[in-house]
Structures are given as C-alpha cells and as structure tokens.
Design brief:
By secondary structure, the protein is of the alpha/beta class. Helix content is 53%, strand content 13%. The chain has 24 helices and 17 strands. The strands form four sheets. Strands 7-6-10-11-12-16-17 form a seven-stranded mixed β-sheet, sandwiched between helices. The chain is flat, with a radius of gyration of 35 Å. The termini are far apart.
C-alpha cells in the first residue's frame, strides 16, 4: 500500500501497518472470542485504550483474515478515542482496502465517518454515513449509523438534525438503546446548545420531546440573566404545550410568583416592543436599554420598580389595542415605553388617553405626536431637529450661504431635503439645486451632472486651460458652499468618490443615517471632513454617554444602538418623573410636560409642545478614518 488516506503511515507502539503481515497457509481463522481479540475488546469496553493497544500490537503482525480486519477495527477504535484521528483513519482505510467484505465493514465505515468528522471533514462523513444507511438491513447497524449521523451533526452544531437522527434511532429499539439516545439529547440540550440553538430546537419540536427539555433550559438561562420577560414567555409556552408534564406545577408557580412580584412593586413600567419575529433585534435592543434604565433608577433610590413586557410582534390595530388595555388593567403601570413602530402610534395614543397612561415612543420620528393624543411622547430624534441643527451649524456657525442637495428618492430623503431647505432659507441662505436618485442606485453620474449644470447657470464656474501635451482641460469650481446628502451609509460611500470624480470638492453634510459602522468600513478618504448630526454618538467623551455605553457593553457583551439609547432615555425620563413625585399616569404626564431639566444621554432636556424630546443633537465629523464629536 503506497499511502493511506491520511497521507502518512500510522504507527501503534512500533507496529507498521504499511508492512503486510505474513499470511500463513491453512492457518485456522481467528474469531473475536479468541483470547487476544476478546481481551482487547474487553479492555476497550472498559476504556483502557493504552492497554488494549498493547494487546493488539502483536496481532498486527500475526493475525490474518477476519481476525486481522477486526484487529484493524479495534486499533482504530482505540486511536479515535485517544484523539489520534489521522492514524485511526489510516487503519480504517487499510481495513477497507484489504477486506472490503469483512464482517466488521459496516461498523468500520461508521467509525471512519466519525473519524472524518473529528478531522473536520463533516460533509464527507455525512456522505459516507448516508451510503451506509441505505445499505444497512440489520437493526443494530441502523441504530449505529443513526447514532453516528447525530454525532456528526452535533459536531457541525446542527443540533436540530442531530436530534432528528437520534429520535429516529430511538424508534429502532431496544429500550436500553432508546434510553441512551434520549440521554444524549438531554446532554446536548443541557450542556452544548446555546440560547440561539435552543430556540431553533424549541421551534422544531414545539409540542414533543425534547421541546419540553428545551423550554425548561431556556427558562433557567433567562432567569439566571434576569430576563424575566423571556422566562415568562417560555413558561407560558410550556404550560400551553405540556400541561400534564411533571414540570407543569413548577411552571405554574413560577408564573404566579412573577405576577405577584410585579403587582406588589411600588412602581411599574411597561415595555411594548417586538421581542419576537423579524423585528425582534430592534425590540430586544430597545428592551435592553429600558432594563438598564430600571437598574439606574433603582440605584437612584427607586428600589421597588417592576418591568412588565408586552411583545407587540404581529399585533395590528385592534389586537394591539386589546392587548395594551389588558396589560394596563392588570398591572397599572405608571408609563408605557413604546410602541416601536410608527404605524402603532394611533392605537397606542387612543389607549393612552383612555387610561390616562403616558406612552413614551423610543423610535417615533414624527415631529408632532401630540396631535395623536395628549399622553403620547417620543424620545426619537425627529427630522425637523436634524435639519434645524445642521442648518444652524452650517449657516450660523460656519457662515455657509449656498447649498445643493442630493437625496434618495424616498420619503425620508424627500422630507429631510424639504426641511433642510426650509431651515437654510429661514437663515437667509440659498438652495442652488436639488436632485434625487433611485433608492438602490450605484451610479450617480446623471444626477451629479445635472446638479453641476444648475450650479453653472448661477454661481459655478468652468475654466478652460491647455495641458502640457496641448489638450484642452475644463476645470469646474463649485459655486455653492456645501452639499447636503441625507442618504444611507452605503449610498454615501458610493456617492463621495463619484462627487470627487466630477470635481465637486465642496464640504459634505449628512443626516443620522450616516451614523453606522458601515460608513467607515465602506467609505474612502473622499468623505473625510464630512459632518452629520445624530441624537446619539457611542464614542462621545461626555460622561453620561460613556457610562451608558460601558454599562451596556458589560451587561450585554455588545455595543448599544440608537434603539437602545432612545429607549433608555424614555424609561429614564419616566423614572425621573416618578422620583420627582409622580404616583400615577396623570402625575407623570404633568412632570414630563413641565420639566425643563430632564436627564437624557445628551444632557438636560425637555419635551416640546409636539411631544418630542428637545435635547442636544450631536455634530459628528469624519476625520482621518474616524468619527469625532464636534463642539
């Protein structure tokens, strides 16, 4: 044999499988129950792998026929368990080459698949196991191959498929083997699967084993992390799907205790955000911010504050109204943080007015939420606030007078362009040209050319000169002071270099859609010096912002987002109103309306007549590949 599949010759205590053992004519075949093989098998069964290899070593040079095939197999088994996978694979390759029809072939192919998986060749292993599975007729072989498939899928961390294989193994029997497979699944759920994997398993087996084990494990994990709302949700799922389970009485008691704890809290806040479904990421970020604000409130002396969470995923107008009314009737919260979606604002506003309960929406960019209801507030940065701050800086601070605007043809782009134009004109400035581009455009040449053409009609200049080679060169000089680009980070990263290509070197101004990690990752130096606005800047040197960012990272092992920051502000403002004496919804609303020094991450703030939080808006500049705070 020239080479093994592993690429080298394996060795076991000096034995060399590259040298074929002498084949003795008419020698009686050795069976597994013969002395040395039986002894080696017994040692392996008791996990004495080194001792088994000592017994097997001489047989590699003397055994023949089926006995040699079994010797190869037992040697590979021991080496696999000792994690010497390459040598194990080489012995198995030798077995399959020399004894393709040996009695132990099916088991050895299953073992080879396991070895391949341990070597990182999981797809190759699964392909081999699939082949063995189609050929297996003996129940023992079927069980073995199903177990191996599950083992390989577990190595791949595809736990749902691993469990599927082991569940099928349980149906083949006998009872003791089914119990082994069940224990394997239990260990996977308890020790291997993280919360994301557990959620996938729960969704795959919502009403059957191991869905019950998964729900119990998730409940334990959520309670350990203080995520009572998630623990409560899984407790309810458990009781719905496993009402006669041994764990059901405990689940019922835990739910009762959770409700009692909330209802006996001196103060209660409610969070109405999507914690499941496609918007769960944003809802979870908002909820994380709310939970941090509650912790901060407790440190400030509000020791007895309960937080009840309502998952708004999938709820539309009528259902949302019903759910919110039931929540308020049961828990009587002083305020509700939410909703997250703008389309939910009318329903929330109606419930707020009906129950005298303030709703603080953390993501509603509507400038005048008060027109929807007298108990509705928003802590989101509104479009007018962005336009006002940027125009104030560009015209009032830098002295710019002439502007062009290039915006995406979306509601967001159109509204920011309109508002910025309005703010500039109110300050005596002038808008030279406004151009729009399709939302998913990558080539902005036509719009840039049109913008230049409009500028050349008024203030721009084009000068002609001769190059050293006699060619004519036209140099364009912009007649405007700055260009406003209210697009996404991805759009801006494409736009900026194209503007340079067309000789537009005017300063660039942007909106809060620039404020993402993608901006620096995608943009080149053509964006350097650009300035944009936002109500949130995680790298701010301000003490309040630094403390929030550090606490968030420490608690959640990730950086906070705009949703987390604005929800944090909303909850903190509600708790501040309580600290100042509000005991019910009416009192809290009054505190929010008259407070001129309410604490926010951007500094002291107040609510304007339209219900939007009027607070500091950050000026952020792109500077040498970094974002820095101005002023």
């Amino acid at each position: 044999m020239a080479a093994t599949a592993a690429g080298f010759a394996p060795t076991v205590h000096g034995a060399d499988p590259e040298t074929p053992p002498p084949q003795l004519k008419n020698a009686p075949p050795q069976k597994l129950d013969d002395g040395p093989l039986a002894k080696a098998k017994a040692l392996l069964d008791s996990q004495q792998d080194d001792e088994a290899l000592d017994v097997l070593k001489p047989l590699l040079g003397t055994a023949k026929g089926d006995a040699l095939a079994q010797t190869y197999f037992l040697t590979a088994s021991a080496l696999n368990r000792k994690k010497n996978y390459a040598d194990a694979a080489a012995y198995l390759d030798r077995l399959h080459t020399e004894f393709p029809t040996a009695e132990v072939t099916d088991k050895s192919r299953i073992l080879l698949a396991t070895v391949q998986a341990n070597l990182g060749k999981t797809d190759q292993a699964l392909s081999l196991l699939s082949e063995v599975r189609t050929q297996a007729e003996d129940p023992d072989a079927k069980r073995d191959v199903l177990k191996a498939i599950g083992d390989v899928q577990a190595i791949k961390k595809d736990y749902v498929r691993a469990i599927q294989a082991w569940l099928e193994e349980m149906t083949v029997g006998p009872a003791e083997r089914a119990a082994e497979a069940q224990e394997r699944i239990r260990r996977l759920v308890q020790d291997q699967a993280d919360r994301t994997a557990l959620a996938h398993i729960r969704d795959a087996y919502p009403t059957t084993f191991p869905g019950d084990l998964v729900l119990i494990r998730l409940i334990e994990l959520h309670q350990a992390r203080g995520e009572e709302h998630l623990a409560e949700r899984n407790l309810r799922l458990f009781l719905t799907h496993f009402p006669t389970h041994d764990y059901a009485p405990s689940a019922t008691e835990q739910l009762r205790a959770h409700k009692t704890k909330l209802k006996t809290s001196q103060y209660v806040l409610a969070a109405a955000v999507p914690t499941s479904g496609r918007l769960s990421t944003f809802g979870t970020e908002a909820l994380n911010g709310i939970r941090l604000a509650v912790e901060k409130g407790k440190e400030a002396g509000l020791a007895s504050v309960g937080l009840v969470v309502k998952d708004t995923a999938g709820l539309e107008k009528t259902a949302l109204r019903t759910e919110l009314l039931e929540l308020i009737a049961e828990y009587h919260p002083q305020a509700v943080i939410g909703p997250l979606l703008s389309r939910h604002l009318p329903a929330a506003a109606a419930v707020a007015d009906e129950t005298d309960t303030p709703f603080l929406a953390p993501a509603a960019t509507t400038a005048d939420v008060r027109r929807l209801g007298t108990y509705l507030f928003t802590t989101a940065l509104t479009y007018p606030q962005q336009a006002h701050r940027l125009a104030d800086y560009a015209v009032g601070r830098l002295g710019y007078k002439r502007f062009c605007i290039l915006h995406p043809d979306t509601l967001y782009g159109q509204e920011l362009a309109r508002l910025f134009s309005q703010e500039v004109r109110q300050r005596g400035g002038e808008i030279i040209a406004i151009e729009s581009y399709p939302e998913h455009a990558t080539d902005f040449g036509p719009q840039i050319k049109q913008l230049k053409a409009e500028d050349l009609k008024r203030y721009g200049t084009a000068t002609t000169s001769q190059t050293s080679k006699g060619a004519t060169k036209v140099t364009y000089t912009a007649g405007f002071d700055a260009l406003f680009l209210p697009g996404s980070a991805g759009q801006i990263s494409l736009l900026a270099p194209q503007l340079r290509f067309y000789d537009i070197k005017a300063p660039l101004l942007g909106s809060n859609t620039w404020n993402t990690p993608d901006l620096l990752r995608l943009a080149d130096r053509s964006l350097d010096g650009g300035v944009f606005v936002d109500g949130w800047f995680q790298d701010s040197p301000d003490p309040a912002m630094r403390e929030f960012v550090e606490r968030y990272r420490q608690k959640y092992q990730s950086s906070p987002t705009l949703f987390a920051a604005q929800a944090y502000d909303a909850a903190r403002l509600a708790l501040e109103a309580i600290r100042r004496g509000a005991t019910n919804g009416k009192g809290l609303r009054e505190q929010l309306l008259r407070g001129q020094d309410l604490p926010s991450l951007g500094g002291l703030a107040s609510f304007g007549p339209g219900g939007a939080l009027e607070r500091r808006v950050f000026l952020i500049q792109v500077k040498q590949g970094k974002l820095v705070q101005l002023e």
